[in-house]
Design goal:
It contains ten helices and no strands. With 189 residues, the chain is mainly α. The chain has two domains: 61 residues, Arc Repressor Mutant, subunit A; 117 residues. Helix 1 crosses helix 2 and helix 8 packs across helix 9. The mean pLDDT is 94.
């Protein structure tokens, strides 16, 4: 019986399985080879090094998050539901959340970098239309709420807190109104 050819997709699937079950620290050539049922040789035939594989795994995980948001977001209350999705993802997919947002693989060096990497343009547009505010103000509000909800999500993902969803909703609603009022009260240039 001929040996099965190990493909890049099989390697990535094995790496994703390990990531999801054990976290990014457990993803290495040997663990992937074990999961894929091969030696490490096919991994290094498909990828020049583990950094390249981890970057592709990061991209794959971002796509998984996008699908999660598409499935769980409430289009009627889109902006609010995106924050709830972020927190829900942290609660349900702790290892994936930590890989995407709490590891060196996210690397950004500015708030603008965070916005570019994490924000969804459809959400910014929804904020502008729903609240009748400028794009700059919509981006600011989005960034404030992103950072606020990310703090809560990070505490949940790392096990530092287990805050009930009802309490989170009250906190995020209060933060939203405070940030929006601040933006609306600032003199326009």
């Amino acid at each position: 019986m001929p040996k099965q050819k190990i493909t890049k997709e099989m390697i990535l699937t094995a790496a994703f399985h390990i990531l999801r079950a054990q976290g990014h620290e457990a993803v290495n050539a040997r663990s992937i080879a074990r999961q894929a049922g091969c030696s490490v040789q096919p991994i290094y035939s498909c990828y020049s090094n583990m950094t390249e594989l981890m970057q592709e795994l990061f991209s794959c995980t971002q796509k998984y998050l996008t699908a999660y948001v598409e499935k769980n977001a409430d289009k009627t209350y889109y902006f609010a539901s995106i924050g709830r999705c972020h927190i829900g993802f942290a609660r349900e997919e702790k290892h994936l959340f930590c890989f995407l947002f709490l590891s060196k693989y996210m690397y950004v060096n500015s708030l603008e970098g965070i916005y570019r990497q994490c924000a969804r343009q459809d959400v910014t547009k929804d904020i502008m239309e729903t609240l009748s505010i400028s794009e700059a103000d919509a981006k600011r509000l989005y960034m404030h709420m992103m950072l606020y909800t990310h703090g809560i999500a990070s505490m949940i993902a790392t096990g530092a807190a287990d805050i009930p969803n009802e309490e989170i909703q009250g906190l995020t609603d209060s933060a939203f109104h405070a940030f929006l009022n601040q933006i609306r009260e600032e003199p326009k240039k």
